[in-house]
């Protein structure tokens, strides 16, 4: 099976497809750093760096599977107040329609945040895919159900050239804790008390809750409205593009490092990331968890 990857980003979908035995023959993204990183890890794939609204689909190789992760910023509730650029990011989903119209692959898998289905133009987008002969199923999946030590809900839309939609199986089961993947011997720890710049009240409240409920070791979200901590004996919460998760170990704390974020996203240890933790974490927060893609492909190709 041959696949192409639209809005490939860090390469989670391509990585998952490769693990499922699929050859990713082409990948495209508008951000050069993402394209270069994808190429480091997938040298056998042809790459383009461009706005995919402007893509010449005749130059894209024939394929059986179209993978696509259109920009989610315009749909996510986490985006905050709308800004003009969000209208442009919403429209990236139409590139999927354009590519599908030209190539008509047998299967299309689109990943996005769950609010993508609430987009005002989603019914029109859905109708366009239907006009091209695709049946569609919407599946809200948690990466933790696929062996990833992270609770990460995302919408996976399976478009197939079949009479009936291919609905994915319910895989809810036991989850992996984040604890074994945290490096308590690593660098970056700072004392919680006696800091030159005191912690804000919400952070203090989260640490107090964690100590009261979970003891010496726990994680908590460094920003947001919650004032509670989270056990390390369960998957960590959603990895985002911001430096979100802090680890507490007794009287010290630090933010999750790049390797821990990579593991929490389900990437293999040898997967190469761009230099600079800020850029790497941003790309990881936008990525697709490879094990989820692997299992979906195995299911829909069966």
Reconstruct the topology from this structure:
Layout: E1 2-6, H1 12-19, E2 23-29, H2 32-41, E3 46-49, E4 65-68, H3 85-90, H4 94-103, E5 107-112, H5 122-131, E6 135-142, E7 153-160, E8 190-191, H6 201-214, E9 217-221, E10 245-249, E11 252-255, H7 258-264, H8 277-286, H9 290-301
Parallel strand pairs: 1-2, 1-4, 2-3, 4-5
Antiparallel strand pairs: 5-7, 6-7, 8-11, 9-10, 10-11
Helix pairs in contact: 1-9
What can you tell me about this protein's structure?
It is a single chain. The protein is an alpha/beta fold. It has two domains: 2-170 and 281-301, Vaccinia Virus protein VP39 (Rossmann fold, 3-Layer(aba) Sandwich); 184-256, no CATH class. Helix content is 29%, strand content 19%. It is built from nine helices and eleven strands. It has helices spanning 12-19, 32-41, 85-90, 94-103, 122-131, 201-214, 258-264, 277-286, 290-301, and strands at 2-6, 23-29, 46-49, 65-68, 107-112, 135-142, 153-160, 190-191, 217-221, 245-249, 252-255. Strands 3-2-1-4-5-7-6 form a seven-stranded mixed β-sheet, sandwiched between helices. A four-stranded antiparallel β-sheet has the order 8-11-10-9, with helices on one face. Helix 1 (12-19) links the parallel strand 1 (2-6) and strand 2 (23-29). Helix 1 (12-19) crosses helix 9 (290-301). The radius of gyration is 20 Å and the shape is elongated. 39% of the residues are buried.
